[in-house]
């Protein structure tokens, strides 16, 4: 529903800007309906078809606030654990990348709960990135999957680590040389490691969220702004606090 208010304020009536806040695209409404039927168990709905349609819907550059909310909360949230094939997982990651594209920044800025939505995007993309790496074909070889806003770098490690890994550790870096370097002592304990790099989410988080994300060792001030890439590191098995640190490598003072 498009709304527009007329304000007088003790003077001549003036129309305010048109608000599209409650508008929804018909394509997104149809997509959400199909996801609902999938969740309810209707055999007519196929996860791969839904992910394909999601990707097509996200090609539209003119999505509304409600569209973004519906795609994240209804579509991505309800499909993140239902991906079955590597192609499904790639499509899910591509859609996650598209939904947080910088071209949608102005729409995200009008979403009151955008920090929570961004966390949901990260949660779903992390899960599918981990599953993508766990199903990668070659053990011991770094797998890389890139999208415009989300990069996935990971490796399945052999039970018996080669001498090279034992000596050098594992470098999960993308073509720009960014990612995570896991030292040899930690590499020897791992079966899998996945790095997910989010380059655009920093542009849609609120200033409050950015300040809260500052490392506790840094004193936050009113003038402090953070514009950093968000990096997830997922390992199997997970490791607790360790005296063997890993290194996050980012360029351009990020």
TrEMBL record:
Record-linked Gene3D superfamilies: 1.25.40.610
Name of the protein this chain belongs to: Uncharacterized protein
